[in-house]
Amino acid sequence: MASNRRPKRPRLLSHTRSTSVTKPSSLSSQATRSLIRKHHTLQKQLHTAIAQGDAKSIESLQIQLNASGGIKKYQEASIQGQSSERGGDSSKVLVEWINEVYQPGQTRLRMLEVGALKVDNACSRSGIFDMTRIDLHSQHPDIETQDFMDRPVPSQENIVAEGFEVISLSLVVNYVGDAVGRGEMLRRVGGFLRPRQGINRKDEAMDSILPALFLVLPAPCVMNSRYLDEERLEGILVALGYVKVRRKLSKKLIYYLWRYDGIKGRTQDAVFRKQEVSPGASRNNFAIVLR
User: Fold this and answer.
1) Residue 200 — left, alpha, or beta (φ > 0 → left; ψ -120 to 50 → alpha)?
2) Which of 18, 216, 259, 276 lies at a 20 to 30 A Cα distance from 205?
3) Cβ(119)–Cβ(133) under 8 Å?
């Protein structure tokens, strides 16, 4: 007899990612990419099955996830994919951009790294940032176990003391299982960024880029999607109060730095539905929705 219990919805962030300090067995670059792609595909299918209450598909997909190595293998692949030996540390780009305006001896910038995997990446070693790191399943004392969507938003009275000048969402938004959830994550970021007037650095170069969201996505999410292109992504971020100040496109990733201008820069009650912007049979279905 089928159970009437509703399946538990997966958390929004990349809860299968680990910060384990134990060195994993080595995987080739091709095997790493293949494992990560397969895991993401199965996770998306699982999310859909859960939303539809399809118990049979849920069971089948969970078996497939376990057969492909489960969480442990995916964790190893994620860590190896971001290793410096494979050029996978996306925070190097952030450090390069901030170094354009940051002067030695200046006060460190408060930074929140969401979905942190390691504590020795480029931003952690740079000396520029006072780091706060969170992940759903931290295995390191310097990474707090927390879901960003559950993190309390600072009050207006405490935003200067408790807020951040940089928030990093590097390969995090793409892991959220649905388009609405991705939009909600982006909408939430502004509540944690210090207002520009609260930074009070009296430095025009720093003011030109801070406070900021560092956003990294797989390039195909923006460059080869039916429902998202750079114009639409910029429209979404502008509606949320951001201005694009830096951009970099590599073969695999697209990097952005978005300055947050606060509530005054927002479009009140902006709505971006799932709408086809780039037709084509070879395109993917990645989307971000604001409602």
Assistant:
1) left
2) 216
3) yes
Distances (CA, A) of 249 to 116, 216, 219: 22, 10, 7
The H or E element spanning position 35 is helix 29-52
CB neighbour list of residue 245: distance below 8 Å, 6 or more residues apart: 208, 209, 212, 257, 258, 259
**182 and 173 Cβ atoms separated by less than 8 Å:** yes
pTM for this predicted structure: 0.78
- Residues with Cβ within 8 Å of residue 151, at least 6 apart in sequence: 134, 192
All residues at 6 or more sequence positions from 244 whose CB lies less than 8 Å from its CB, including other chains:
234, 237, 256, 257, 258, 259
Peptide linkage before 211 cis (omega within 30 of 0): yes
Q: How many CB atoms lie within 10 A of CB 231?
A: 9
Q: What is the pLDDT of residues 112-123, one digit of tens each?
A: 999 998 899 999
CA dist 64 and 70 (Å) reads: 8
CB-based contact 179:214 (threshold 8 Å): no
Q: Residue 242's closest CA among 167, 175, 182?
A: 167
CB-based contacts of 192, cutoff 8 Å, min separation 6: 112, 151, 153, 154, 163, 164, 167
Q: What pLDDT, in 10s, does the model give residues 44-98?
A: 666 666 666 777 766 676 776 676 665 555 545 555 555 443 347 899 999 999 9
Parallel/antiparallel/unpaired status of strands 253-260 and 166-170: unpaired
